[in-house]
């Protein structure tokens, strides 16, 4: 017991130390991620909640309420800033590592569990800067904690009481409060894992007992889902409440922008293959070995975790690279049983073969080995809200010049600006204030047709529209038609909304290859 506690403390200390390194050297992230991506949207949501808005009714997020509400609660005391957000990301990384070590130590000796946690799990958990580059949103960290909690609560079928089954159901239902659909995929994977374990020699229950356990699990899950649905239908119109409960149109949106170029297996260069794709292939192969061999009862949760990613991809729940990346850590835990059953010499060969992945990741993410993008080479951006962001000089210069163009068109202290496709980070940092609007993310199908009038109302109250690309530069010739803007997931409004947009926008002002500004016609 003392050895396990000592190793758990070692894992925590190493994780905390690594996160401090990432905090110190990830200054290049905020200027890009916070102005353009999901971190800025989350900060904006917290701004609105602190101003009295109700989540989903007054402002929309495509994820569950738990990550946003937790961030908003702590931000009341710590401040709603980029630094506070980064600390949340690091804490979720460390908490996930501790739960992963706890789970692994149930099956393997503490030293092996600690080595696997440090060498395999944490590089995929680190936010920002994970081995798989899984983005800077908060929901993946919460999703990991939820799935690991279920794995820790799981016991072999003949050892599960009805109370434990109900508890598993509550945890599965809680996943819906983090991100839609995860609970359904996890439930399917749980059922398949039970069948695989029984087939491979695990405990088999009488039909009556199995049905009682399934009923208890369902009651727990439906209790959470029922309470969540009741609150939503009390706050929102029926159609909008259903969209929050099961926003299938978001899956359609991701499918619309999926392409071979955005595939997880798209070839970029040898460094990306070695650092990101090769470890995933190796872990996937080991997961398949785990699932096809006879498993001990203690390995059941690891089999279930390893099954989740292939099942989610096969069912179409993860149709795009952006949605697959946050799930790749599951393969690492599912691969552990097969890896530790290899002969010792073979284990060392596999570890040495994958070591370059960790080295390249360190170089690319933190610059520890080669000085790639050291902090001294970054530029600072003094934001109107008082925060200082750091990032590549070209991106900082782009943001500064965009602010200058907007100030010429609307010189008020809080100009009325709408940003496509994601406006919220710009509003938080720059103080741009269009009319209050529920939607802030204008990717394909993210705004249902019934809500498009809201977008037009906000645009009519704006004086400026900013078209800001990040993934790829804009076309050389940018028209006023949003369907031709060429963004990843560019807006696809109805024909009537597009016609009214064309009437609202004047000819564009080009800031650079990535940014175009449209003045809004007065009186429209």
Pick out its properties:
two-stranded antiparallel sheet, 21 helices, four-stranded mixed β-sheet, mainly alpha, 524 residues
Report on the structure:
This protein is 60% helix and 5% strand. It is mostly helical and 524 residues long. Helix 6 packs antiparallel against helix 16 (329-340). The chain is globular, with a radius of gyration of 24 Å. 43% of the residues are buried.
Topology:
Elements: H1 2-25, H2 28-36, H3 38-50, H4 65-78, H5 82-104, H6 110-125, H7 139-153, H8 162-175, H9 182-199, H10 207-235, H11 238-245, H12 248-257, H13 270-292, H14 300-314, H15 321-324, H16 329-340, H17 344-366, E1 379-382, E2 388-391, H18 393-409, E3 417-420, H19 424-430, H20 452-461, E4 464-468, H21 495-504, E5 509-512, E6 515-519
Parallel strand pairs: 3-4
Antiparallel strand pairs: 1-2, 4-6, 5-6
User: What does the radius of gyration come to?
Assistant: 24 Å
* Element-level helix/strand string: HHHHHHHHHHHHHHHHHEEHEHHEHEE
In total, the number of strands is 6
**Residue share in helices?**
55-70%
The stretches of 5 or more residues where confidence is low (pLDDT under 50) are 25-29, 367-373
**First-residue to last-residue Cα separation:** 72 Å
Number of helical regions: 21
Indicate the overall shape: globular
Strand residue percentage:
under 5%
